Each structure stands twice: as structure tokens, then as C-alpha cells.
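Complex 425.
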Amino acid sequence: MPVIFISVSTPQFFLDEQIRAQLVVQKYGGTSVGTPERIKAVAENIAATVKRGHSVVVVVSAMGASTDELIDLADKISKNPPGREMDMLLTAGERISMALLCMALHELDVEAMSFTGSQAGIITDTSHGRAKIVEVRAKRLCEALEKNQVCVVAGFQGVSSSASVTTLGRGGSDTTAVALAAALKASACEIYTDVSGVYSADPRIVDKAKKLSNLSYDEMLEIAATGGRVLALRAVEFARNFGVPVHVRSSFSPETGTWIRDEESNMEDPVVSAVTHDTSEVKFTLERVPDEPGVAAKIFRALSDEKLNIDMIVQNISTDGLTDISFTVPADERIKTIAVLEDEAFETGSMGYQSNENVGRISVVGAGMKSNPGVAATMFEVLASQDINIQMISTSSIRISVVVAKEDVERGVVALHSAYGLDSE
Ligand code: ADP
Ligand code: ASP
Ligand code: MG
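Predicted structure with aspartic acid bound:
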């Protein structure tokens, strides 16, 4: 897993200890602020939190599907919009929700103030569309908190070291929330969403998925990295690196959700905690690759120079000094990947490539896998019994992933969930 290095300091400014002790960071996702009624309901929840004596920093997403709508709008104007302008456009979504939520809070006589990512001191690198937070300068938030204001921050955005507005990648409001919780040393970060926690599989696919009460950072990292989009991967990395306990819960009901924090692993850990899936990647196969030192390095350096997010990589044994290498990339990076592979500067010899969009990944994740052999054998047997062909395999100490045909993904997930004894009663 990638490690992030950031400074989450509040230079020259320290939050009063009493305020810090009562501080909670709450993040509300798109569905949770999807309509005026939902925004009013969120305001009620925040007002109740304030009444219980807490100081609150709120992070909001754009309303409903408005980020998708803005992307569609841009697509009608340009197929290759400048990153700076795309980010300027997309950050508008979160600005709408933050202002409306502050209005709803004022209606309830709760003092609140909205902040764009830039105003909240979220400083990022310059990669438009997927900027990384490099520093949080939370001075203005600290000042507002000390005046008993609720701070409402637009998620998913920041300002780069070269003063351009940036976005943090899809799902980035989770990252804003956890980064602020880390910077302000809040006792916890609450992620309010449209499901009541992290489930043993996506509840939209598996009816019998059950809510998991506790997860370690490592398990959640694997779940987030393999398609469990309930929490963004970068947010989990922050939480782990800065020890922020995260509570994923429903904005529609008060029940306890899933706590993600440092969990000691022990022999009692479930062998498999969750089955995840991801259908947002494409598979590339490079054919007739010379099987000699330095070739893979050259290929993957060229892809990495274009900042392409290569995921699974598999190389076959060679015949006649030539081999095949397959790898996966996010589907929205397909065109860029092809541009690298077809670049004349990229000497390929007789090498060719194929791309396949009809693929999906299924993964099983569980901290107990470390001490229990046979998880992979069971996985492959279950998929075989469903007549599902495995195209690629990769593993970590607590995860096994396979790439299969897209149409087999849901069937495979349901069968595996049942086979590992995860189905709820
Ligand atoms: P938000 O808008 O609140 O950020 P998201 O749509 O990003 O919400 O994430 C919540 C969705 O994540 C759920 O509606 C669910 O379909 C999906 N999801 C995928 N895998 C899981 C899982 N293992 N547990 C819970 N939800 C999951
Ligand atoms: N609105 C952004 C998105 O849809 C960020 C987020 O919701 O976390 O990806
Ligand atoms: Mg999300």
C-alpha cells in the first residue's frame, strides 16, 4: 500500500485544548445532502451534536449526482478540457452544498460558516483531478471554532502550491474529512453515508451482506482499494497514518455503524471479512515482449511518467525469448495508456497490445487469512463451480484478487459471500 507523507500542522496556531477534546469531524456524502429536505435533516443532526456540547467541523459532498452532471456538462463542450478549468467547475458542486447547509443551520439558530477547501487551508500538489493533500493550514477553522461557530467545509478540493483550485479525485470528500480530523487532532471522524456502515459485500449486490462492527485500518485499506467505495482509499491511508478512528454510519438512522481503527490482529479474526468487486478497470495485454532484463522497467517507467495508476500485473513464462505481460488500469485512463503504448518514442520492437474492457475484479479480504491456509483454494473452487474463468490473480497477506469477465462478477461475489459463511441469517 502506498504511504503518504504530509504535514498536517496548524502553523502558529493551536486549538484550545477544551475545544479539541470535544471536537468531532462529520462528513456527509452526496445522497445525504441530495435534496433540500435532506440538507435540513443533516442540519438537525449537527444541531443535536452541538447541543451535546461538541464543537463540529462538517465536510460536505456535492448534492446527489451533481458531480456526474458537471462532468457530463463539460463533456458536451470539450473532450479534453484543461485540468485547471475542470477542477474549477467540479469544486462548484461542493460550494453549493456548503452554503445551503449553513443557511439551514442558521434557520435552527446554530452559528455556522462555510469554507471552500482553499479557505479551510487544504494545500495540495498541482495534479489536477487527483491532487494529493500536502499540508493542512487550519488557522481559519481554529479561529471560527474558538468563536463557537460550526465550520462547514467543501469536500474534495484544495488549493495547489501554485494557487490553482484542485480536486482530490472521486470520493475525495472522505479524504478532506479525515485530513481535517488528523490536522485538528479530533477524537474521531464520522462518515455519514447512505448505508449504515461497511458491509461484508456491497449491499446493492449481495442482499445477505452484513454490517461489520469493527475493521482494522489494513482490512479497510484492502476493501477500499478493491472497490468498496463506501470510504475513499486515500482517506483510509490518512486515518491509518495519523491514527484517526473513523466511524462509517448512516445519515438516515442513528444506529452505530462500523468503527475503523487500530485493531490487534489475533487468531479469532474472521478468515474472510468481506468480498469486494470493481468493474471500473480495463485489462491490457502486451504481447511478444522481449524476456530480458530492463524491458519491464522501461514499459512501466513510461506508463508511470504519465502518472497512470497501474494495478495488477501478471507476466507469463516466455517461449522463444518472448513473453506476455498483462496489467489493469482504471477505465478512464485507457486512452492515455494507449497513447503511451503507441508513442513512437516508446520502442516496442515487434511488441503489440490488446485492451479488454469486459473485465472485473473480485477480491476476498480478511485479517485472519494470514494464519489460515486454503482461502485461495476455496476461492478458486467456488469460481470453478460457477463456471467462472480466472484471467489474473494477485494476493497480499490479507487479500486475494482475481480478474474475471465482467458479466461473471456479481454471480461470483454472491457465491463467494455464501461460501465463506458471510451470509446474514
Ligand atoms: P457517499 O455519497 O455518502 O460518499 P458512496 O456512494 O461514495 O456514498 O458510498 C456508499 C456506497 O458504497 C453504498 O451505497 C454502497 O452501494 C457502496 N458500497 C460498496 N461496497 C460496500 C461495502 N462493502 N459496504 C458498504 N457499502 C458499500
Ligand atoms: N462530489 C465528489 C464525487 O462525487 C466528491 C465526493 O462526493 O466525495 O466524487
Ligand atoms: Mg463516497
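The pocket of adenosine-5'-diphosphate (ligand 1) is lined by residues 29-32, 61, 171, 193-195, 198-199, 201-204, 228-230, 274 (CB under 6 Å).
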